[in-house]
Amino acid sequence: MTENMRSLRNFFLYKCLFALTFWNHVSLSVENELFPSVSNNFPEDGSDKKIKSLPLLYTNGHQSKANFDWVVIQNTTESLSLSEITNDNVKKLVALLSNFRRGSRLQNLTLTNVSVDWNALMEIFQTVWHSSIEYFSINSVTQLSDVESYDFDYSGTAMKALTMTKVLITDLYFSQDVLYIIFADMNIAALTIAESEMIHMLCPSSDSPFRYLNFLKNDLTDLLFQNCDKLIKLETLILQKNKFESLPKVSLMTSHMKSLKYLDMSNNLLRHDAADVQCQWAESLTELDLSSNQLADAVFECLPVNIKKLYLQNNQITGVPREMAELKSLEELNLASNRLADLPGCGGFTSLEFLNVEMNSILTPSADFFQSCPRVRELQAGRNPFKCSCELQDFIRLERQSGGKLFGWPAAYVCEYPEDLQGTQLKDFHLTELACNTMLLLVTALLLTLVPAAYVCEYPEDLQGTQLKDFHLTELACNTMLLLVTALLLTLVLVAVVAFLCIYLDVPWYVRMTWQWTQTKRRAWHNHPAEQETILQFHAFISYSERDSLWVKNELIPNLEKGEGCVRLCQHERNFVPGKSIVENIINCIEKSYKSIFVLSPNFVQSEWCHYELYFAHHKLFSENSNSLILILLEPIPPYIIPARYHKLKALMAKRTYLEWPKEKSKRALFWANLRAAISINLPRSFEANEEQSDVTSTSSINQYVNN
């Protein structure tokens, strides 16, 4: 017995040593193929050192460029991922994959960015089919040459699943059957062909072992698998994002799939309008996804009788017909993002446990829902435009009594109507018994109508004795916040109007001028209280812009002050008193002058000091009721250049006669005669005798007075 045990142990050790030696040989050859630069750097002596130093593990984040121009994305004992496969390196790839015969530990292969001819692509598939690889994924495939018939050998394979995504065929003219039959007859459990613009797929030639088919995001139509009875083991079929249009044809497609349990037809163009068309679904089908299609209420007449989970979100369903066929096995129903106006009853869904009706048009859900659906454990009804009313309050109360089945409560349940309650969560919404009990409300109103005399105001005194039926207050009187907001708005409007008028009429400027005139009068009264009566000293005060001073000095003053009947003029350069402010000098000169002559020109309206002089002269005109203004238009003034604050000047020129300086010399004699006549007056002799003394001026005062 002991001898037999020793022999058995030695035999087992020999087997293990043989397997280890074989695997080291294969691994070493693979590493030398993929990373020759790494292995060549190792010392030639000592094979043990070389084996121990081989990089046996490369994680997903690491990429290495081999001498064959492909990129190694992952290289482990059980997984290999390569990229950039072309016609130049495909034969070396086939040679590499040939090393992994059945019994090898490599099980997962991923190829990305593959651009090869049809025959080279088939040779890759054929090599993989007879290797140890069980899960093969190939992404971003471009087939370059003509598609032609290929005798594919499916025998002796370890393959379980094939995934192909983003396949592009450049050949425009080829037999479709040659291409599709290669994949239709594959003897594997799972096949995925996605995002490849595939327009059809053949029915397998014999009973297929397919249990999982995924044709996501292609161009498949209602012709797929019609009258196909070879997919008897198929359990999962995904046809999402294709171009299916007829729901009855889809049902007919599944009628021969005896093992089908899950079908995904979401994001297609499915419709079902004809009520007389019969639907023939696979009896084994228990889960169906028809979301994001164009289905209406008639879809409930074309559903599998044994369905347990049904997804109909994002369609055009307005309600569940009462005469629909009963779905006794249905446990989960998704009707979100449709056009439902109320919760569906459970007359046809006696086993329903989960219902989703979010994002519909439900204003007031029926309160009898919980009575008709006693088995429902979870109701998702949030994000609907709820109308907060007595009926909705009854629904919430019954839901609380049933144990709280609302999913997403309370954040997803918010009032949309009426507007004064918009945004209020349903948990915070309450109405009194009187508001919700119609009979009680009618009785109360009737009592108030029959005996109004018993309901009389006592306070306040001005309403004492008024019956309540005749008492009314406005909303503004009862709402303090509304009253405050209204008062604030009126105040702001009034302030804005006053500010606008002040700015438009230049009120601040006039206030400032009035203040200066008042201060000047006050100082004069304070310094000489006994000399309040003003005595005229000049025939006229001249107001002009400094830019027009040449005309004043060369024409106006010489013609008025010389010759017979000379006129005594007040000019700021000669008659302003040193030490006094400019404004005070202007006021004194205007008040001591019989007339005020204003030399008008475009320069005049641009001068701030001229505006002051015009203002004080105009003030004298009204205060003394005198005709003391003489206007000389030296140059025409375009109306658009007159500032807004010169509205007094505009009024004077519109209502009063003014003298216009003639350009022709022959008319100037008449101009001077008219001007002398306008200012003709005899001044007191005491002031004429002191003419020379009053001409003394201050240089500093003159320099301050600048007309711009």
From TrEMBL:
What Pfam families does the record point to?
LRR_8 (PF13855), LRRCT (PF01463), TIR (PF01582)
Q: Does the keyword Nucleotide-binding apply?
A: no
Which residues, if any, are the signal sequence?
Answer: 1-28
Q: Name one GO biological process term.
A: cellular response to bacterial lipopeptide
Q: Which GO terms describe its cellular component?
A: plasma membrane
Domain (TIR) ranges: 536-679
Q: How does it sit in the membrane?
A: Single-pass type I membrane protein
Transmembrane stretches, by residue range? 481-505
Q: Give the UniProt family note.
A: Belongs to the Toll-like receptor family.
PANTHER family documented for this protein? TOLL-LIKE RECEPTOR (PTHR24365), TOLL-LIKE RECEPTOR 6 (PTHR24365:SF422)
This chain's protein is named: Toll-like receptor
Phylogenetic lineage: Eukaryota, Metazoa, Chordata, Craniata, Vertebrata
